[in-house]
Design goal:
Length: about 280
């Protein structure tokens, strides 16, 4: 089985409080984009989980793909089945677009089918939150208004613009941003109708700009062309366009020192579409 593993954007990110366990309460709107990694899953008879290629400075046991597979092992119907997983990486790491979380969710969805675990999406999402707060949205597969630590999801239907996505040459530490004493943590909560107007902001933006001059430079450049936004804790920035031509025009002027992509917003995860197609073909 081969599946795409898409990125997401936070169209805004409000931090509304901090819990006693250190996690932050937030409100955000998640939307998928059609920029994807690719994961291939091959069943084996040796009950082992292997992942390739090996990522430098990331032990296999710390890889979210491996953790997701291990999480499902107790639920598989045939205890002898293992899996070889191959990752073709396209999404930049440390970009705030959820690449690792998406890979974990894609692994859960694929192995739930291949290992015949028969878990519902809701159960998979419940399990996945222990691996990461933004994994449930990838598991559920719909654009969503999210609350809590990002796991309380309400399905929404959004416009699907073209986005110019820019990745400055830096890696943003999420931990550093969320522990910064100057981070705003008391943005008043809003209701879904207000959230769907997408006129919110990202509470992490100013802290990220302060710690990362490259993000600040890219933000100021992109802001000259429209309503530039930061996704998650960054480093990626994005700008929405109504048509492809306008997005391509601005991309043509993007400094080559930054990675850049044109992608399309998606209200349904490409993973779910591809998985449903695979299931249909294999049933037929």
């Amino acid at each position: 089985m081969q599946l795409p593993s898409p990125a997401k954007l936070n169209l805004f990110l409000h931090i509304t409080g901090r819990r006693e366990d250190g996690y932050h309460e937030l409100q955000t709107v998640f939307q998928f984009i059609d920029l994807c990694d690719t994961l291939e899953f091959t069943l084996t008879q040796n009950n082992h989980i292997t992942i390739s290629p090996v990522i430098e400075q990331l032990p296999t046991e710390d890889n979210l793909i491996y953790k997701a597979a291990k999480l499902l092992q107790p639920y598989k119907q045939n205890s002898h089945f293992g899996v070889d997983i191959t990752l073709e990486k396209q999404l930049p790491m440390g970009g705030g677009i959820g690449g690792g979380s998406s890979n974990a969710a894609t692994t859960l969805l694929a192995l739930n089918t291949l290992w015949e675990c028969h878990l519902s999406l809701e159960k998979l999402a419940e399990l996945s939150v222990h691996l990461g707060a933004d994994i449930p949205v990838f598991v559920m597969g719909f654009a969503a208004f999210a609350e809590g630590i990002g796991e309380k999801l309400e399905k929404v239907t959004l416009d699907t613009p073209y986005y110019l996505l820019i990745k400055p040459n830096c890696h943003v530490s999420t931990g550093q941003i969320f522990t910064d004493k100057y981070l705003t943590r008391d943005t008043p909560p809003i209701k879904i109708p207000h959230a769907l107007k997408l006129d919110g902001h990202n509470d992490c933006l100013e802290v990220v700009r302060k710690h990362n001059p490259d993000v600040n430079e890219a933000y100021l450049w992109l802001k000259n062309h429209g309503d530039a936004k930061l996704t998650g804790t960054g480093a990626c920035l994005f700008l929405a366009f109504e048509n492809l031509q306008d997005a391509e025009r601005v991309k043509a002027f993007t400094p080559q020192k930054w990675q850049s992509w044109i992608c399309r917003g998606c209200n349904t995860s490409p993973t779910h579409y591809a998985l449903n197609q695979w299931i249909k073909q294999n049933r037929d």
